[in-house]
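Subject: mismatched residue count in predicted assembly?

I count 645 residues in my input, but I want to confirm that the predicted structure covers every chain. Input:
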Amino acid sequence: MSGSTAAPDRPDERLVRTSPLRKLLGRPELGSVVGAAAVFLFFAIVADSFLRASSFGTVLYAASVLGIMAAPVALLMIGGEFDLSAGVLVTSSALVSSMFSYQMTANVWVGVLVSLLVTLAIGAFNGFMLTRTKLPSFIITLGTFLMLTGLNLGFTKLISGTVSTKGIGDMEGFDSAHALFASTLTLGSIQLKVTILWWIALVAVATWILLRTRFGNWIFAVGGEADAARAVGVPVIRTKIGLYLGVAFAAWVSGQHLLFSYDVVQSGEGVGNELTYIIAAVIGGCLITGGYGSAIGSAVGAFIFGMTSKGIVYAEWNPDWFKFFLGAMLLLATLLNAWVRKRAEATT
Amino acid sequence: MTATPDSTAGATAGAQADAEPPTGSGPLVELDDVSKFYGNIKALEHVSLEVHAGEITCVLGDNGAGKSTLIKIIAGLHRHDGGRFLIEGEETVLANPRDALDRGIATVYQDLAVVPLMPVWRNFFLGSEPTTGFGPFKRLDVRMMRETTRTELLRMGIDLRDVDQPIGTLSGGERQCVAIARAVYFGAKVLVLDEPTAALGVKQSGVVLKYVAAARDAGLGVVLITHNPHHAHLVGDRFVLLKRGVMSGSHTKDDITLDELTRQMAGGSELEELSHELERTPAPTLPGASTATDDTP
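Triage response: the counts match. Full output below for your records.
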C-alpha cells in the first residue's frame, strides 16, 4: 500500500514529459491564434489593398472598438455569466454624457463623470439583481437590455425631440475629451485611433487581474464551480458584481468614444453588439459554461472580427457576406478549441 | 497530549495565529443537544458530540440520517435552530464558511470543494491566496504557491506529476488528499471530512485513512463522517451514530467493538430481521428451472 504513495526520487514514471509544444496547445487562446493567422492569409491573398499600412490602422480600429468591450465580457464569461445589456449600455453611457452636458450647459467633463457613475450603477444593478435573485444572468441582463433600449429612445426623444442628441462639439472641454477618447495618432504612414491604446491597456489589465491577482483566481473559481468556491471562502457575490462593474467601465469608455468621435449620438445604436462581444470572447477560447478562457483570446477574437469586417470591404465584396463569415468563424473556432483542448487534456 | 500537538498545529498555521489560549483538555468543538429544521422537516434533533485535539470523532449513519446537515452546521453553511454549538468552550453561531475557516474549522466535502478546470496549485490556495507587492502591484505569489503546493503534497506522500494540471484530472483519492493537505497547511484545528472513502476502492481508502490518521497525529481534531463502520473503527476514538435525524448512540473506542458498531450501524435489529428473511428464502435452484419450480405443491 505504501509503495504506491511513497515519494520516488526520480520523476514519476506515469508522467510523459510535457513538450513546450504540448503546453502551448493547452493555452485557451491557441485556437483563435490559428484562426487569426488563417483569416489574415486569406484576405492577404484575395484582397490586394489588405496588406497596406493604412488598411492595418483601419483593421486595428475596428478590432479595438470591439475589443475594449470583449475583454471584460470575456472575464465575465470566465466568471460564468453573460451580459446581454452590454451593447446598449455603451449607447446609454454616451447619451447620459451628452445630454447631461448639453442640458446643464456644463463642461463636457462633468457629463463624462456623471456618465461614469450612471454606467457603473447600471452594472452594479445587473450584478446585484443576479446575486440577489439567483436567476440566470441571461434573463436578468435580457431584462436590462430591453429596459435600456427603451430608456435610450424614450429619454432622448423626450429631451431632444428627435432620436439623436444635440451636438456638443462647441462646448467647453470637448477638445480635451476628444483627445482622450477619440483622437487619431499618426505613426509614420499609419493612422492609429486612440481606442487602440485603450484596447491594449484594458486587455493588459484584464490579463494581469485574471492570472496574477486573487480576484482573478476567484473569477476562475466562481465560473468553474461557484459552490466549491463559496465553501472555501471565496466572496462569490462580490466577485460577480465586480465583473459587472468591469463591463460597465468598458461600456463607459466605449460610450465616450462613440460620443466624442461624432459629437452626436443616435439613441437606437448598440442593439446586437452584445452578441458580437460574446462571439469575440468565445472565438478567443472562453468556455460558454464558464471557468476557462483568457482576455488575450478575446483580443485575438476581436482582431479576427476586425480583419473580417474590413477585409471584405478591401476585397470589394458585398458587406452582406460579413455575417456569414462571422458565423462560420464562430463555429470553426469553437470546434477547433474543443478539439485542441481534448488533445491537450488527453495527454496529461 | 495537549501541549505538543497544539504547538505543531500552530506552527503550520499560515493564516491565523490570534486567539490561541491553552484550552487544556476541553473539546475543540462541542455540539450540545443541537437541532436543525428545514421548514417543518426535522433534519436533526438532539445531537451531541465532542471533538478533541488529536482525536478522531466518527459520525456514522445511513443515507438520510442527517450526516450532511450536521456537517453543514459545523462548516458554517447552515445555522443550528436549537441547542448549543461551542468552539473551544465558547458558544457560537457561525455566519458563513469563511467564519468557520477563520476559527480553524476546515471542511473537506464529498464533492471536495475543488474547481476541476483549475490547476492544482490554484485550487490549493483558493480563497486564501498569498500575495506579494504593494498597492496596484499586489499580486499572487505564484512561485511560492507552486512550491508550497508541491512540498505540502510531498509531505503527505503524494508526488504530483505536475502542479499545473487541472485538479479534475487527479484520481479521487489524490483529490481527497490535496483537500486534506490544504486544510492542514492552513492551520485548521478541526478537520471535518465528509465521507472521504465513499467513492474509493480498498487501496485508495487505505491511503486516505492514513492521511486522516496523520492529520490526527499532527494534533488536529478530526470529524470523520462515514457509513463504513470498518473504516470508522480502524481510526476512530469516538463514535456518534445517527438514525433518521436523531442520535441513536454515542460511544468511545473502549466501550464498543467493531461487531457491535457494525450491528448498530446496520440498523441492529432490522438487520437481524433481514437476515432471517433472507435465510427463509428457498435454497438456490438451477437457474433454468427456477421459474418453473415456483409454486409446486
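Strands of chain A lie at 184-187, 190-193. Marking this ticket as 'not a bug'.
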